[in-house]
Amino acid sequence: MNNDWIQDNKISVYEMFDLLNEEKVEYIYRGKFDSKITDGILSLAEINLDGEDSLKIKKRVYFILVEGLQNITRHQEHSEDFEEYNEGFLVIQRKDTEFAITTGNLIQNTTIEDLQSKLENINKLSKDDLKKYYRQILDNETFSQKGGAGLGLIEIARKSGNKIAYDFQKISEVHSYFYMQTKISFVSDEPDYEVQSLANMKIIHKFFTEQDILLNVTGIFNHEKLIYLLSILESHMSKQVVLKNKMFSIMIELMQNVVKHGDEIEINNVSGKHSVFFITSNKEKISLNSGNFISNKKVPKLKKHIDRINKMSQNELNKFHFDTLVNYKTEKDIAYGLGLLDMRIKSRNRIYYDFQKLDENHSFFSIRILLKYEEQRERNLTYTATESTPYINLDEKNGQFIMCGNSYPESASKFYKPVLSWLKKYSLNPRLFTLFEFKFHFLSTGSKKELIKLFNIIEQIAQTSAVVVRWHYPLNDEDAFNFALDFSKLFNIDFNLVEFNEMDC
């Protein structure tokens, strides 16, 4: 196994695939639940249900999933002391003869006795008795904002034809975590109640919490699944627009890698491009992980390509990317090239990978991409020009920075301090292309010293961004031209000297 992977990962992607495949898990989500996320989850489930022959089964699974998601969104509590248990939990399993839906959410301990009494009573009743009980409650009970008096639970039991498995895990003197599992059989409506299955899901929940895993999808991927995965994740990234765009772009490349280049194998009597995708998320970074089966014949070339681009600087990557686009002859020539290059460029981090040889024909190819959360900062920094200070516009979104006018402030170091501070933060995560434009009519000695500090930062930015500097100087001003020429030789940057007639900012 690749040593870099061992040092930076608690579990390999193949181990994750193997673990969840054994339990026939298709989807796991651990996080906040809102209407947008539940809509995405329902859409994902609906795609898989299209492959199920029985319309009756489809309707029952969909109904129970809706009820389970509503139970989480209506009744989830919040604990200040146990943040990790504030997250809701959902698992969808598709076994040989049944679907299993497991949900989990935090509840107050004061509600346990009543909830347990309802569940025990429901599990004792036959089909006909459940129907009568439902009518009785519907006729006699009042409703709160959080729903009816157990009507959802009764309907889950009726639609599933099985008992409801449940458990309460005490978290504190105030809160417990409530697990509920429902099964929908394909072949029989005979009651089925397997405690061990719920116990396994509790273990997986604990594991996902410890590993900071937000979302997992296992199975055969397609473009539709990708769209709904992106919709589920979008609300998590509302305050991280740039990072969200990078994450979405990398996810698309990871999924296309599976769809286009993964090998088909048969697992559990189902042939296709089986794969796994999961996301870990903590306060510092997001990790995007995917794994799929590939032919052993592809491994040497693929490994060589990844090792090569992992050693490249950002400028070398940009040039290699452009040359690859221009010079490739067939789609086959860049089978893995451009996708991996895009991931490497956008993440600004190396690609972690591993090949797990399974037999003489196939290996399991794992990729892990790390994305760091950006420090929140003002997207633009703008100063209005005065008689002694320049107009400044630092546009982070477009990677364009302009300074124009006179620069002879009373204290140059004080004036340029916030500009240098802002630019240092930008240098930690610059755009792929950055343009700097300078158009000075007069520069004081103090301003020139500050500009040297500024250009030292620009030189750092040029290590990970394609930087272009346009230095404008007044027409026929030989002294200004000579200063710009000498100044440009101090730095290893693409410097363009441009004449101007008028001071137009």
Q: How confident overall, as mean pLDDT?
A: 83
Strands across the major sheet, in which order?
4-5-3-2-1-6-9-10-12-11
Number of helices: 16
What does the main sheet amount to?
10 strands, antiparallel
| Low-confidence blocks of residues | 1-9, 143-148
Distance between the termini: 57 Å
CATH topology-level name of the largest domain? Heat Shock Protein 90
* Total number of beta strands: 18
Q: Please give the share of residues in helix.
A: 40-55%
Rg on CA atoms, Å: 29 Å
Assign the structural class, choosing from mainly alpha, mainly beta, alpha/beta, alpha+beta, or little secondary structure: alpha+beta
CATH architecture of the largest domain: 2-Layer Sandwich
| Global shape | elongated
The level 1 CATH classification of the largest domain is: Alpha Beta
Question: Mind explaining what this structure looks like?
Answer:
With 505 residues, the chain is α+β, with helices and mostly antiparallel strands. The chain has 3 domains: 1-22 and 221-374, Heat Shock Protein 90 (2-Layer Sandwich), CATH 3.30.565; 32-211, Heat Shock Protein 90 (2-Layer Sandwich); 380-500, Transcription Regulator spoIIAA, CATH 3.30.750. The chain has helices spanning 3-8, 13-22, 35-49, 55-75, 112-124, 127-140, 151-160, 195-210, 223-234, 241-261, 299-310, 314-327, 337-347, 412-428, 445-461, 478-488; strands at residues 25-31, 88-94, 98-108, 165-170, 175-185, 213-220, 265-267, 270-272, 274-281, 285-295, 352-357, 362-372, 380-383, 391-395, 400-407, 433-443, 466-474, 494-500. The protein has a 10-stranded antiparallel beta sheet, with helices on both faces. Strands 13-14-15-16-17-18 form a 6-stranded mixed beta sheet. It has a two-stranded antiparallel sheet with strand order 7-8. Strand 4 and strand 5 form a beta hairpin. It is elongated.
